[in-house]
Amino acid sequence: MNDYIPDGYTFAPNNGWTGGPSLITTTIAGPLAAGDSVVLNLDLTFQAPSLAATNRTWINYSEIASAQDLTGTTRDDVDSDAGSNGTNENAIYPNQTGDDNITSITDTGIGSQDDHDPAGPSIFDLACARQ
Fold this sequence. Notes:
- By secondary structure, this protein is mostly beta strands.
- The protein has one helix at residues 87-90; strands at 2-4, 9-11, 18-19, 23-25, 44-46, 60-63, 116-119.
- The longest helix is centred in the last third of the chain and has 4 residues, at 87-90.
């Protein structure tokens, strides 16, 4: 797995993730059967915004870097290019169009790379909260 850490976070090695500062990796011990999933935890430190902060400052992306079968042969996904970190992958926002698209059968359009997934914080301004 690859994780692409944006400027809004800092990273210290944890939960099997290593590397940095903007690209970190971990390996999932397999095998995983078709339809299986695995949860990976990653702890990042949220950084205060700079004047140049954008709505992408805290969107973190992870993707499958490669996959092998039981014989060690590299295998491809029909609609995803492992480790590609491409434009249509990075156009995805958490919980928006294309996020969690696991049914595409081509490599075109927002969310077609189902090996690449965004995450980010939910921010609530308490100063603006009204009762």
